[in-house]
Amino acid sequence: MRILGVDYGKKQIGIALSDETYTIASSLCVIDVSRDDPIIYIKDLVDKYDVEKIVVGMPFNLNGTEGERVNITRHFISELQDAVDVDVVEWDERLSTRFSDMVLNEAKVKGRKKKKKVIDKIAAAFILQGYLDYLTNEYS
Question: How far apart are CA 75 and CA 78, in angstroms?
Fold first, then answer.
């Protein structure tokens, strides 16, 4: 069994997947919302990878307050929860995209187009890794 991480966005949705020991999060893919139905796509991933839980990043403001994006993300979570037979949990994603951008800069990835193709799945991996680290600390 594995855990799926989701970085929800209007245009793209980044997806990450844990290993079977819940230790490491790896970037998996990016869903292009204009081409694919994200709910169906994620449902297929849940079946394909034997996923037992989905962690969706919540875009809280830096001061911890909730903005409009939180409401939109919660609506997506509600739709997703209705479509899958696994728990869908919220996880604070503050700064995940910023950290992803820093990783790409360190890797010397240049150009907006190149970064845009991968930044969301890297952010999903940061979100999921934070959750996995929480689980490790919670149960150790």
Answer: 5
